[in-house]
Structures are given as structure tokens and as C-alpha cells.
Amino acid sequence: MFKNVRLYRLEEPSTIKAEDLEQRLPERRFRPCGPLQTASLGWHPPLGERTQALTHAGNGCIALCARRQERLLPATVVVEALDERVADIEEREARTVGRRERRQLREEIMFDMLPRAFTRSRQLHAYLDLVAGWMLVDAAGEKGAEELVELLRETLGSFRVRLPRPKNAPVAIMTRWVATGQLPAGLTLGDMCELRDARDERALVRCSGQDLGAEEITNHLRAGKEVVKLTLRWQEHLEFLMLEDLSLKRLKFADALLETALEPDIEDEAARFDAEFTLMALQLRELIEHLEKVFEMAGAN
Questions:
Q1: Between the chain's N and C termini, which has fewer beta carbons within 10 Å?
Q2: Residue 62 in contact with residue 21, Cβ under 8 Å?
Q3: Exposure string over 191-216, b if 16+ CB within 10 A, otherwise e
Q4: Tens-binned pLDDT, residue by residue, of the chain (301 aa)
Q5: Taking CA 209 as the corner, what is the angle to CA 256 and CA 244, rounded to the nearest 5 degrees?
């Protein structure tokens, strides 16, 4: 189940086929870092290590997973080794090590240390909703999401997506929701928001675990602050934090929904993945279709 959602509009969803992706993705299948590589990025089976398929299709959606591995070589370790090497040379040879020689020494140290450095891996999940025309990436930040999109673009040669283009400003809409307490059907306020002064972006107020209709928050709004982050609930099935760029964080699906939709005796990992993926994709599809109407997000070209 995704914890975050960063949205990308698919410009040509009708041209995307699951079988085509399954044939092309192996060209960039994940391979561990080589001895002198600082990082490696490639496609990984979304159903886990025990499977080979690099896609998983169902209900008009195609699940993908990228894996990134990087060698852990802190800059402080390199600097310390470099300083020791420079000090030794200057003491033994009674001369000053220049900038160019320091740079060469640093490269030699990196060359020596990299093969022995520990590695760390992380997975980045995403899926293409060909019915709704969106790509959803489970990434907390823009950098990770863009990394996956760029990998897909490099793999396929061309992959046309763009960020949402809302006609109704999310900040203005969220501010109105908190100010009036009136939200579209299906959405209710949570208990957290972040307010920012429209005249000074450094002036922030974070409210958590509070009644968002309280006088304290109303006073902040009267003083000119705007809502830039807001927790919301969708049909009592899903709680999330929405940001001003329409990315979603801290997704939490209701336990009752999971218990109702998922059979507790599913032991096969692939079957459970499919059940959870289907449940999540359908819930997020409904939510995003609702948000499209609220914010009047332009459709695909």
C-alpha cells in the first residue's frame, strides 16, 4: 500500500501496453553497483525477489518498481583520509601539496575505498492508471519521483507525462475548506494543517491534533495566512495529507476497509499483492477523479 502519491498526467495513455513494457523494461533491469560505481538504478519485480516479471497488470493499471542501490562513502571519511595523506606527504617531503595534487589524491582515495564501501538499497513503486490517465509514484519527494520517470523515459525512448495543472489554486481551495468547514461530498477535514503567511513564506504555523474549526486557526486565517498542507479523509476509507502541489503524503487506509476487502487466509504473496494493489488502485482512482473535478485539472492532450 502506497504511503505517498505524486501525480503525473499521462499524455498518451492509449499507446501504453503492459506487454510492451514487459518486453522493454528488462533492458534496464536492476544490477548491483559495480566495484567503482557510486549508485545503480534499474527495474525490479514489483511482486518481489521471488518473481521475474517487471510489471503487474490489473483493472486497467500497470504496477512498476525501480530499485536504487548506492555505496555509502561519507564525504567526511574521504576528507579525513585526504587530510592524513596530505599531512604525510608535506611532512616527509617538506613541501606544500597544491590544489591539483589534492584533487588527484582524492580520486585515488575514492578509487581505493569504493569497492569496500557498504551498499544500501531502496525500492520506488509506481503504477500507470490507463483508465484514469494518471501515473502515481510512491515518493515522498520530487527528486525520487522524477528519478523513476526519467528511468522510464530512458528505457522507452519517449514517455510523455506532465504534472497536474489545476485551474483552481489548491491553496485557495484548502484555505476556504478550513475557513468555512464546507467540503465537497466524500471529503472531511482531518486534524492537521500548515499555514503560511501570504506576504512572507518564512512565516509558518503548524497545527496538529486540533479541531481545525477552532478560533485560534480562524484568527490565523483572518491575519492573512493560507493553508498549504491539510489532512483530509476520503469516504472514511482513506486519510492523507494534501500539499499545495496536489501531492499526497501519509496515506493510511482504514483497517475496516482492508479487513472487508482482503481475505485473511491469503498466504500466497502474489495473490495478496494483487488483492491489495487492486483495492488501493480503485480507491485512489475514485479519489483522484473527485479531486480532478474539485480543482478542475486539465485532461490529457
A1: C
A2: yes
A3: ebbbbbeeeeeeeeeebeeeebeeee
A4: 899 999 999 999 989 999 999 999 999 999 999 888 889 999 999 988 778 899 999 889 999 999 999 998 888 998 999 999 999 988 888 888 899 999 999 988 888 888 888 989 999 999 999 999 999 999 999 999 999 999 999 999 989 999 999 999 999 999 999 999 999 999 999 999 999 998 888 888 898 888 888 888 899 899 889 999 999 999 988 999 999 999 999 999 988 777 766 666 666 777 778 888 888 999 999 999 999 999 988 654 4
A5: 85
Task: Give yes or no for a contact between 50 and 42, defined as CB atoms under 8 angstroms apart.
Answer: no
Q: How many CB atoms lie within 10 A of CB 243?
A: 17
Classify burial at 6, counting beta carbons within 10 Å of its beta carbon; exposed 0-12, middle 13-18, buried 19 or more.
buried
Grid cell of 22 as nine digits: 514487459
DSSP code at position 25? G
Report how far residue 278's alpha carbon sits from residue 133's, in angstroms, rounded to the nearest whole number.
Answer: 16
The Cα 299–Cα 297 span in angstroms is: 6
Spatial separation of the C-alpha atoms in residues 171 and 228, rounded to whole Å: 6
Residue 235 zone, left/alpha/beta (φ > 0; ψ -120 to 50; rest): left
- In this prediction the pTM is 0.85
